[in-house]
Amino acid sequence: MTTQNSPAQAGAVIEHFDKMSTKGDWSRLYESLDGRNYHFHVRRNRVLELLPEKLGRVLDVGCGPGVMTEVVLERGGVFDGVDLSPEMVREASEKFGHLPNVSFGVGNIESIDARDETYDQLICMAVIEYLKTPDRAMSEMARVLKPGGVAIITMPKRWHVSRVTVAATMPVRLMAKLLGAATADHLPRLRLQPDELDEAARRAGLTPDGRSQYHFTPIAYPLTRVAPALTMRLNLPFEKLHSARGSFTSFWAHGYVARYRK
C-alpha cells in the first residue's frame, strides 16, 4: 500500500523549510561545524562516500539550498535539484543556478517530474522521514533511475540510544517546553530501521548495494544539548564505526545511509 502525504502535512513541511531558507538557517548548518550541527556534515560525508567517483546525470530530490551541487559537478556530473519548498529552490538557484549543467525546480518525491530511466544517480538526503510511508517515493526513484543506476538514501532510525534517553527525560523536556526553552520543530517524522528501509527498496525493485551509519552518540542526550562542543569531540571518533553492522554498534548511531542499485 502506498500513502501520499496529506495536503496539510505537505503544507506544514513546505512552511517549515520555507522559513528555514528565508532565515538562512539550513545553509548555515553546512557552512560551519559545531556541536549542534556536526551530524549534518557527517551525514553528507557518508552520502559522498557511497556515491561513485565519476557521476552522470544526478537528481537530488529534496536538494534544499543546493548543498550537493558543487561536489556533483566536481565529479563530472550534471545536477538536477528539486525540492518541495519554493524558498529552498529560490535560494539554491541564486547560489548555483548560474553554473553550467545545473538546474533547480519545485518538485515532489512522490511524483517526480521526469521520464522513466532518466538518471544515472539519485540523492535523497533527509526527505523520506517527512512522508507517511517510503513506498511511493521508492517507486518513483526506481522509475526515474536508469538500469544499473544507484540511489543514495538517508533515514533516521527508529531505535537508537537517544530515543531511549529522550524518553527517560520526558518530565524535564515537558518543563522546558512550558518555560519556552524547547527548540525542536513539531513536524511528524517517519523513522525506519535499516532492514525496513532495505525491504521498502526491494518492493520498489531496488537492490541494496552498500550501507553506512552516522551520528554515533555514546555520549547521548541530554548531554548533547547541555555541552554540545564537548560531546561532539567525544562522539566524533566513534564515526569510524559507520560501516559496522552489529546490532550493538548500530544502537549508538542515529541514522542510516543506504545505496541501492536498479
General description of the model:
The chain is an alpha/beta fold and 262 residues long. 41% of the residues lie in helices and 20% in strands. It is built from twelve helices and seven strands. It has a seven-stranded mixed β-sheet with strand order 3-2-1-4-5-7-6. Helix 1 packs parallel to helix 5. The two termini are 21 Å apart. The mean pLDDT is 92.
SSE layout:
Elements: H1 7-23, H2 25-31, H3 38-50, E1 57-61, H4 69-74, E2 78-83, H5 86-96, E3 102-106, E4 119-124, H6 135-144, E5 145-156, H7 161-168, H8 170-178, H9 194-203, E6 207-216, H10 223-226, H11 228-235, H12 247-250, E7 253-261
Parallel strand pairs: 1-2, 1-4, 2-3, 4-5
Antiparallel strand pairs: 5-7, 6-7
Task: Explain briefly what this protein structure is.
This protein is of the alpha/beta class and 262 residues long. It has 12 helices and 7 strands.
